[in-house]
Every structure is written in C-alpha cells, then in structure tokens.
Specification:
The chain contains five helices and six strands; from the N terminus they run ααβββαβαββα. With 171 residues, it is an alpha+beta fold.
C-alpha cells in the first residue's frame, strides 16, 4: 500500500511537471509536491553555472538564512558538489560530522541530515535536488531512490524547457 502511494505521488509529480510552463512553475511543483513523497524540513534545487564551477540555489521550501534562494557557492568542497562529481545520490546521516561548506551552513540553520540527487540529462549534470531534515538519519535508501526518480523527471523537464526557450529566442 505504501509503495502504491509513492508510485502514485511520483506519477502526480511527473504529470504536473509536464503541465508546468516556465522554470518558476517547474520549481514550484517540485518544492511543493516533494514533501508529500519525502518527509523533510527543507527542499532545494540547485543549478550548475555554465562553467560547472559553481551552483546557484534556484528554489527553496523551508528555512535557511545561510543557504537562501539566489545564493551561489562553489562545487568544490561541498556535498552537492560530490554528488555532481560522482554522478550519484548521496545521503548524509549527520551533517555535524561533515566539514563540507554546505553541510556547515545547513547545520548553522538547524539541519542535521540530508539526501541529494544529481539531475542528469544524457552525460550532463544540470544541478541537484536536495532534501534536508532537522533530525539526524532522517532518510534511508527508499527516500534516496525516490529523490533520484524525481530528479530524473526534473532534469528532463528543465532540459526540455531550456530547449523550447532557445528555439523561441532563435525565431
């Protein structure tokens, strides 16, 4: 029953993403609906810059004065950067034990654990989808897999939206 509910929620997120027009609407769908699938206190979406050296937070649900929307930070020395470099999802059960820049900032905002999934299209990483919790070890393998599935939907939607925007600008 729980697995059927999760699949229905993933399908719902995918359907809403396909109906969303524009990046803001896409980000809103994910940040609002992901909490129904994965229990967390913070959801954020980061996108890589053109050179792949830094990330910007484009969407956020939850609190955080240290990592707000619009904040840029380097890929190097961060947990999200490691997920991007290794092209795999990562789970940190206790952020207080990490010396990564983003972990330190999340701890300052009261967060204790997180899970991160890179958004990959073809051979390119676009950014990451992240969920944080104020509880240690709040996420397991199930949540990590669910986040990876949603990140795949999100990556394809972002890429399609960018392609449509480029085609419209070229006309």
């Amino acid at each position: 029953e729980d697995q059927a509910r999760r699949l229905a929620l993933i399908n719902e997120i995918g359907r809403r993403l396909s109906e969303a027009s524009g990046m803001e609407a896409i980000f809103r769908v994910v940040t609002e609906r992901l909490r129904d699938l994965i229990s967390g206190d913070r959801t954020s979406i980061t996108l890589l810059d053109e050179g792949g050296e830094s990330l910007t937070i484009y969407a956020l649900r939850g609190t955080g004065e240290n990592l707000p929307v619009g904040r840029q930070f380097p890929v190097a020395g961060t947990i999200v950067g490691r997920a991007i470099t290794e092209r795999r999802s990562l789970r940190t059960d206790d952020l207080t034990l990490s010396d990564a820049t983003d972990a330190i900032l999340l701890v300052r905002d009261g967060y204790r654990s997180n899970t991160i999934a890179p958004m990959i299209v073809g051979n390119r990483v676009l950014g990451t989808l992240n969920v944080g919790s104020k509880r240690p070890a709040a996420f397991g393998e199930v949540e990590e897999r669910l986040l990876t599935n949603v990140a795949s939907f999100l990556a394809a939607t972002i890429e399609n939206t960018r392609l449509i925007q480029r085609a419209q600008e070229a006309q």
